[in-house]
Structure formats: structure tokens, C-alpha cells
Amino acid sequence: MKIRYGVSKDANIIKIAVMVFLVGVLLGAIGANVFKDAYFKDMKIFGEGYFDKLYVLDIDHGKLFGYIFWNNLKKYLLFWIFSVTVVGIPYMVFSVGYSGLSTGFLLAVSVLKFGVKGIFLFLLYIFPQYLIYFPVALITLIQGYHLCTNLYFRVPLNKKGKAKIILEKVPTILILFLIILIGALSEAYINSFIIQKMARYF
User: Fold this and answer.
1) For residues 189 and 104, is the Cβ–Cβ distance under 8 A?
2) Which residue spans traverse the membrane (predicted)?
3) Overall pTM > 0.85
4) Tens-digit pLDDT profile for residues 172-192
């Protein structure tokens, strides 16, 4: 019974997260359309042989990996830092909404600039790393939510009780960290290779 309740609660968390994400996507797409005149002038680079240059560019995969990994690590650590505070859940809502906003904006910009090919370009930019990042994000969100609620919204806890709950999450945090590392490797090496080879078609 307890397991069923836990699964049901996790499903509700995912449903709410999906709704917040989709609202963000919608707002991002609307924003991209409303402000397209403002940023399209700065996108002339895409019409001046950008992808031709990308096709022959010598990519330093090591530096690219370092940039991607550090960027992901900062977001990951920030998420867990907020998760052990009383404002953890509002931060999670903001984080999911902002991710949706960014997704909607980038997708809309791609479509406005390249038409139907823009959808394909967007998918290229997120493959294959988001096959790793997406499930990690869901698990992190669920675990972070449970951590925050257990610390502040269940029974009152003293410092020792809170420390125990946090320490119980450390193995999960470390495992997810290693998976993020794999995702960063796939983004730096596999994704950049795919984009470079497909650049000639844009």
C-alpha cells in the first residue's frame, strides 16, 4: 500500500512538472514570435555561411566537454542546494518553467528561421544527450521534492534528523552525477560530431 502511494505521488509530481514545463514552452514560443524583429537582426550570421563554416570547423572536444560539464554541474549543485532549503519547491517550479520557456523559445526561433527544417535542427541539438538528461532530470526532481518535503513539511526535525535525511540522499546524488557526466561526454563528442556532419544540409 505504501509503495502504491509513493508511485502515485511521484506520478502526480511528474504531471505537475509536465504542466509547468508546457506552460513555459507556450510562453517561450509566444515570446519568440512577439520579439522576433528584435533578435532576427542578430541572427544574420546564420545566413552568411555559418553552417558551412561549422562543417569544416576543428572542434576541440576536450574544451567543449569541460564547458558543458561545468555548466551542467553548476545547475545540478544549485538544484540540490535549494532542495535542502525551505524555498526548494518554489525553485523547482521556477527551474522547470524556465526549462520549458527556453525550449519553447529555441524551438520557435528554429522554426521561424528554417521552417520545418528548424524542428529537425532542434532535435539534432538535443540528441543523444537528452536521452540521458531527461530521465536524470525527472529522477532529480522527484528526489529533490521528497528531500525538501521530508526536511520541512512533514514531522518537525532537529539538526541531527535533517542531517540523516540529507546523508541518505548522497548515494543517489552521486549516481545521478555520474550519469550527468556520461551525458556531458555524449554531448561533447557524439552530439557535436552529428551536428557538424549534418551542418551541410542547413
Assistant:
1) no
2) 12-35, 77-98, 105-126, 132-153, 173-195
3) yes
4) 999 999 999 999 999 999 999
